[in-house]
Amino acid sequence: MKNLSIILLSAIFLLCSCRGGMTNITRGLNQSYLEFVVTGDNHYKDGVQVAIDDNTQFNAKVYKDQKSRVKGDIYAINKGAHSIKVYYKDELIYSQKIFIGTEETKKIQLP
Q1: What is the tally of structural domains in the chain?
Q2: Using CA atoms, how far apart are residues 31 and 41, in angstroms rounded to an integer?
Q3: Residue 90 domain-assigned?
Q4: Which CATH number do you get for residue 81?
Q5: Whole-number mean pLDDT of the chain?
Q6: Is pLDDT at 13 greater than 70 in this prediction?
Q7: Residue 60 resides in a domain
Q8: Nearest of 85, 81, 37, 32 to residue 58 by alpha carbon
Q9: pTM for the predicted model, two decimal places
């Protein structure tokens, strides 16, 4: 009887502790993402300045676009149509109107 109790308690304990690797990630329903890349030499190692719809501005890292690359930093924006302008040392290097869907990651290819 004592052995049965120990086995039963051990089974309950093991079943209750099987959630070890679970994580809870909540994504925003209206969130989309931008990633900034360049082919060839990355001469934007200091980063670039990004303006979205001429009112939201932030600094962004630029990564060399290659197949073996692990995805770099991505930047969250709302889904929909946006005007994207990218500056490097106060010089406009990219200007484009884009449409981005829900939970889509748009790769911005810089010159």
Answers
A1: 1
A2: 31
A3: yes
A4: 2.60.40
A5: 82
A6: no
A7: yes
A8: 85
A9: 0.69
